[in-house]
Structures are given as structure tokens and as C-alpha cells.
Amino acid sequence: MALKLSAIQEPQDVREITLDFGDAGTIEMTVDPNRFNIGRQRKLRQAIKDNDTAAQADILFDAVQSWDLTDDDGEPLPLDESGIDHLTVDTVLAIAMKMSEALGVPKSGTSTESPAHSPTPISTRSTSSKGSKSRSRNTSNS
């Protein structure tokens, strides 16, 4: 009888993470680490190697279920291309670095750290609740 992957690989709880940007404030995110598997890590490493920030953002933000980032008018920034496209490369790199740390992604030889943003604390907490008050992503796509 074949061994099923689910028998040896338990799903991880969704994590609530806080990305600290010092005096600028924090971004609260709900992240599903199950969506960031080995295949996505390979794609992320290749995107880093290729210096393809847009691909890095797509791969990392796919694991984000919700966040509380808003535009300058206080409107929630959507977790799709229309929202993410407003971010500067430095901002995407800073968020990517902090998310990678929070998700336990091993560092490769190439740093995603932006010179404009130094490493700051990240807090994480696991939750089995999928709900959040912040802007959410449609997660029906796998």
C-alpha cells in the first residue's frame, strides 16, 4: 500500500505575523505556510537569482491571506496585482525579506535585503482561524 503524503506531512497552522518597519509602523499579515512549499522556494530562489522582483513578489504574496497595509488615503491595498503593483522595489524586497524570515525560508547566497530597510523584529503566532479583519486575498486558486 502506498504511503500518502498527508500521513507524514501535517498541515501547518496559518500564522499571524507582524513586519516591523520601525518608526514607519508595522504590517500585520495572515500567512499560510502550506502555500510556500519546496516548489515555490525553488521559484523564489530563481527569481532572486534573476533579480526579478515582480516574480519574487508574486511568489511570496501568494502565501498571504490578508494584511492591513493601506494606501495613503487609508484604503486597504488589495492583495493582487492592482495593489502590489503600487509597491516600490525597495518595499517589496523589505517585505520579502521579513516574510522569508517569518516563514523560515533558508537564506541563499543572494540577499533580498534592501539598503533602505534594515532588519527589524518580526513576531509570529500560529492560528487555526482563517478569519481576519484586514484586507483578504481570494484563496480559491491553488
Could you explain the architecture of this structure?
The protein has 142 residues and is α+β, with helices and mostly antiparallel strands. The protein has one domain (12-130). It has five helices and five strands. The protein has helices spanning 5-8, 38-49, 53-61, 81-84, 89-103, and strands spanning 14-20, 26-31, 64-67, 122-127, 135-136. A hairpin with a 5-residue loop joins strand 1 and strand 2 (26-31). Helix 2 (38-49) runs antiparallel to helix 3 and helix 3 (53-61) packs across helix 5. The chain is globular, with a radius of gyration of 15 Å.
Give unreliable regions as ranges.
Answer: 109-124, 128-134
Which structural class best describes the helix and strand composition? alpha+beta
| Relative helix content | 25-40%
Q: What is the chain-wise order of helices and strands?
A: HEEHHEHHEE
Radius of gyration over alpha carbons?
A: 15 Å
End-to-end C-alpha gap: 28 Å
Q: What composes the largest sheet?
A: 5 strands, antiparallel
Count of β-strands:
5
Strand order in space, largest sheet? 4-1-2-3-5
Strand content bin: 15-25%
- Number of separate structural domains: 1
Shape: globular
Helices and strands, with pairings:
Blueprint: H1 5-8, E1 14-20, E2 26-31, H2 38-49, H3 53-61, E3 64-67, H4 81-84, H5 89-103, E4 122-127, E5 135-136
